[in-house]
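Students often ask why we bother encoding 3D structure as a string. The short answer is that it lets us treat folding as translation between two languages. Here is a chain of 148 residues written in the first language.
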Amino acid sequence: MADVSHAQWADHAQARLAHAGFRRGGARRAVIELLGRQPCALTAHEIDERLRAQGRSVGRASVYRALEQLTDLHLVARLEVGQDAARYEPVHPSGAHHHHLVCDTCGRITPFEDSALETAIDRLSRRVRFDVGDHDVVLHGSCEACRN
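And here it is in the second language, the structure alphabet:
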């Protein structure tokens, strides 16, 4: 996803929101700016904590509302990776995305990209005649630190 900049996604998200009739809200803008700078998905609680650490006074309810709106407009993906809380990350208009490695011991989530995996999913889609609109691969196991 290195070819997709924060500014591109943030601008796209703001334009989609405006087109959908949403006013430029401070909480939504703060969530968009924060998510656009992250290498991987965050929980709503993590988003709230990071905004507070930056001195942004956004209420937790506003964070949840912003995430719901962004998810409804397919600007943010809600990910279930088998932990206690859903995670959220930008959906880039280019289709660029990554998948996730989840350590079942420490909970660490590591993003990964694999063009061969994308090719295999595309090939499978054609073979079974199924139009895959979206996908996320989550692999569970042990990270290097926990394995040692």
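Translate back mentally: The longest helix spans residues 6-19. Keep this in mind for the problem set.
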